[in-house]
């Protein structure tokens, strides 16, 4: 069964060439996978990680808008079932430091941002891992996480600060970070965030403390 799904996933690479005479065939395949929720079956397999890692690599390396939009539909329709697998992948990379898990590992923060834009619920179990990283002893590592969270908290439609107060409070603590670049990044974020989220002004200006 695993080999079958890996084979199906590899077929989606055909979406890269929109001028190919076979493009409609691959597009139809993705469309059906999205609406029938075919990948839900994978969770009955002992090791579904390989399938989903290959799926993520294929979908997010494809720049065709129509295919990408359908890929987003696929993820949204399988949030509850696919979220544990996503959490496991990021746990191996962020917490356990297994960068060899996938070629995606070096783009882990970009991937988190993409998934958050599709549906924040895909990352429910990943947020505590980011909080863990915010407390890292490595200043550069903290800086990378602050830059990522600045985008997630500051995006116009984001409600992450209200939905995850522990992570938000931990993030605010970086304004007093011993690493100067982290403090500078935090200040830069504040001015941008206030434009999109004036309701967070008290938190950002320290008036609640």
* Class per helix and strand makeup: mainly alpha
Give the SSE order as H and E letters.
HHHHHHHHHHHH
Cα-based radius of gyration, to the nearest Å:
19 Å
* Percent of sequence in beta strands: under 5%
Helix content: 55-70%
Shape category: elongated
Major β-sheet annotation: none
Secondary structure tally: strands: 0
Mean pLDDT: 82
Number of domains: 2
Number of helices: 12
Provide a brief overview of the structure.
It is built from 12 helices and no strands. It has 209 residues and is mainly α.
Describe this structure in words.
It contains 12 helices and no strands. Helix 2 (23-36) runs parallel beside helix 4 (65-77) and helix 7 (127-134) runs parallel beside helix 10 (165-172). It has helices spanning 2-11, 23-36, 49-60, 65-77, 79-95, 108-118, 127-134, 139-154, 160-163, 165-172, 180-196, 201-205. It folds into 2 domains: 1-119; 126-209, no CATH class. The chain is mostly helical. It starts with a helix and ends with a helix. The mean pLDDT is 82. The longest helix has 17 residues, at 79-95.
